[in-house]
Amino acid sequence: MAGDVPGYEVPLHRSLLEPVTIKGVARIPAILIGTVGALLVFSMHKVLGGVLLTVGLWAVARHLTEMDPHMPDFIVRRARSRLPFLGG
């Protein structure tokens, strides 16, 4: 590239650019989904419903993460933003 100064190149590891995932799901949604599943299974004794809900939410979160790794951040940012056309 034009304008590059020799000797001032910094190698950037790819792991610094990719989001942290747990089994294919971004970290924060993975923790929330696991916590909700554990709550349903252990405290409310809804074993089948809790496991099915957890697996379903995990599949949706993994699909969204595969489509766009920054999707969970976008969803959180969008949920926190005000909607001026709704008077909020």
**Uncertain residue segments:** none
Give me the number of helical elements: 3
Helix share, percent: 40-55%
What's the β-strand tally?
2
Describe it for me?
This protein has 88 residues and is mainly α. The protein has a domain at 21-76. 55% of the residues lie in helices and 5% in strands. The chain has helices spanning 27-43, 47-67, 71-80; strands spanning 21-22, 25-26. Helix 1 (27-43) packs antiparallel against helix 2.
Please name the defining characteristics of this protein:
88 residues, mainly alpha, 2 strands, 5% strand, elongated
Summarize the structure.
With 88 residues, the protein is mainly alpha-helical. The chain is built from three helices and two strands; from the N terminus they run ββααα. β1 (21-22) and β2 form a beta hairpin.
Helices and strands in order, then pairings?
Elements: E1 21-22, E2 25-26, H1 27-43, H2 47-67, H3 71-80
Antiparallel strand pairs: 1-2
Helix pairs in contact: 1-2
